[in-house]
Design goal:
The complex is a heterodimer of chains A (about 250) and B (about 250).
Chain A lengths: L1 H24 L7 H12 L3 H23 L8 H39 L2 H7 L4 H40 L3 H10 L3 H27 L4 H34 L2
Chain B lengths: L5 E12 L2 E12 L3 E6 L5 H8 L7 E6 L2 E2 L5 H8 L2 E4 L11 H12 L4 H14 L15 H13 L5 E5 L7 H18 L2 E5 L3 H7 L2 E6 L2 E6 L1 H5 L4 H8 L5
Parallel strand pairs in B: 3-8, 3-9, 6-7, 7-8
Antiparallel strand pairs in B: 1-2, 1-4, 4-5, 9-10
Classes of the chains: A mainly alpha (about 250), B alpha/beta (about 250).
Chain lengths: ~250, ~250
């Protein structure tokens, strides 16, 4: 049992070292701007439909749940504000992180794993290209940039979904809905909660890249890297979220 | 003291993966513009030897010199500079499967040469023609047969005109005619461009055509080293078995 715990901590240490090495390399040339842009398109922009649609659906559902609770107290007017606070401060960042972990984490794990077992990473090295910089650092930068942006899209889509549900039920106007939703939100609510998703991006990129980059054993190894990327980055993200929420409460009381 | 003519040198190099010894106390050198062929049964450390030569694997013991520089302790940037002087053809081609064949060949040119798009297109077309893949520019690697992938990978390995070319199983998966064409290309590179070749192969007729020197590996040890005539004169059973196989003798 003790040896298993020691192995888990050793593994976490290796992944953390890998991640911090990648973070340090972000600031050292050569800067792979073209590859980073390509990754931003592939991992970030192409995640937009999933994020926007999920946000819309979550917004509709949350709005309906909130209404069923608040109308008992005659407090339906608080639905837009309640939904906006819930989305921006917690639900949006966490759900976006988990969605990206599923879509992007699995993709990175499988892509790098496939490249490793077919010697494409060795081929990159043999062509005098630093594979760590080219493959890992670019994906880390992408996740650091994409997560806060996707979270903003998710939040906006969710609030819009809430409006669609509310206007269907109560006929509330768009202007009134947004007025009520955003009147209770301050900049200090939005910024820390959204920026913490950069940490989620760090975890997703680090875990997925580590597992893909060190994949072994053919197609099975690629599958394992892909599955573990999603599972481990999701767990990491949920656990670190607890710490970050506490830190945000401490810094922005 | 390293001779100026020596391009690659192994000094008492050993490599093991866990308990399995892959290469043990291997020493040899390759002169500039010569072709060294490494023969041996599967799993005797031939590909590992090539990968150590380009720094993809590090030896457990011993030193490896490339063009006079010991490569064991170079950092990634210094190693990149050494690698620009080398081409590597992987056993399974290792083409980048997310980009076209033309882009695969163009990849090192875009990274390391300041060519215009037109120059790159021209150079890639020329390289693909060299390996008889003129029509493959826009095809994806998944659309190619195993032999075609290998030839495309050869074109990529030659893109930077490397003075040293490491080739892992050039004939594997190729028909005899294409295999001969690849051999001819290697021989031309050696004679016209003074390219130093290190070729791993099981194909004895191919080894005969290409080699100036041959090394035979068995269980991680060099059991024979010399010219074709030296090997023919060897009393070692494994060496003789190898030379007699595939019409080699």
């Amino acid at each position: 049992m003790m040896s298993l715990i020691a192995e888990v901590f050793a593994w976490i240490g290796q992944v953390a070292f890998f991640g911090f090495r990648a973070f340090r390399e972000i600031f050292r040339p050569p800067f792979e701007i073209k590859e980073t842009s390509r990754q931003l398109f592939a991992l970030g922009l192409q995640s937009l439909p999933l994020i926007a649609l999920s946000g819309l659906a979550v917004g509709v559902v949350m709005s309906m749940h909130t209404r069923s609770s608040l109308e008992r107290f005659g407090a339906e007017a608080l639905i837009p504000a309640g939904l906006a606070i819930a989305m921006i401060k917690e639900t949006g960042p966490l759900v976006t992180g988990l969605l990206v972990s599923g879509r992007v984490g699995a993709g990175i794990g499988a892509e790098l794993g496939g490249m490793r077992v077919t010697e494409q990473i060795d081929a990159l090295e043999s062509l005098a290209v630093d594979s760590f910089n080219y493959l890992v650092v670019t994906r880390l930068v992408t996740c650091l940039i994409a997560l806060p942006l996707l979270t903003t899209v998710f939040n906006f889509a969710a609030i819009t979904g809430g409006f669609l549900a509310e206007t269907t039920i109560s006929g509330m106007s768009l202007r009134l809905y947004y007025d009520r939703a955003f009147s209770s939100i301050q900049f200090a609510d939005y910024v820390p909660a959204t920026l913490k998703t950069a940490v989620f991006g760090f975890i997703i990129a680090t875990v997925s890249c580590y597992l893909g980059y060190h994949a072994r054993g053919g197609a099975e190894g690629v599958g394992t890297a892909s599955t573990r990327s999603v599972v481990f980055s999701s767990i990491g993200l949920i656990v670190i979220n607890v710490v970050l929420v506490r830190a945000i409460f401490f810094m922005f009381p | 003291m390293i001779e100026r003519q020596t391009t690659v040198r192994f000094d008492n190099v050993s490599k093991a993966f866990g308990e399995i010894k892959i290469l043990e106390d291997a020493s040899f050198e390759i002169e500039e513009g010569k072709a060294l062929v490494i023969l041996g049964r599967s799993g005797t450390g031939k590909s590992v030897t090539l990968k150590m030569m380009i720094g993809l694997l590090k030896p457990d013991q011993g030193k490896i010199f490339v063009q006079g520089r010991e490569i064991n302790n170079l950092d990634s940037r210094e190693l990149s500079e050494v690698r620009k002087e080398m081409g590597f053809l992987f056993q399974n081609a290792a083409l980048f499967d997310s980009i076209s064949v033309g882009e695969n060949v163009a990849f090192p040119l875009r990274r390391h040469r300041k060519y215009t798009e037109e120059d790159i297109r021209q150079r890639v077309s020329q390289l693909l023609a060299q390996v008889s893949l003129e029509d493959a520019y826009d095809k994806m690697p998944s659309d190619l047969s195993g032999g075609m992938k290998k030839r495309a990978a050869m074109a990529r390995a030659l893109a930077l005109d490397p003075p040293i070319l490491l080739v892992d199983e050039p004939s594997a998966g190729l028909d005899p005619i294409t295999s001969e064409d690849i051999d001819k290309l290697l021989i031309d590179l050696k004679s016209d461009h003074k390219t130093t070749l290190v070729v791993v192969t099981h194909n004895i007729p191919s080894a005969r055509r290409i080699a100036d020197e041959i090394i035979v590996l068995d269980k991680g040890a060099i059991i024979a080293h010399g010219s074709w005539e030296d090997l023919e004169a060897s009393n070692n059973d494994i060496v003789q078995h190898f030379l007699r196989s595939q019409g080699g003798g």
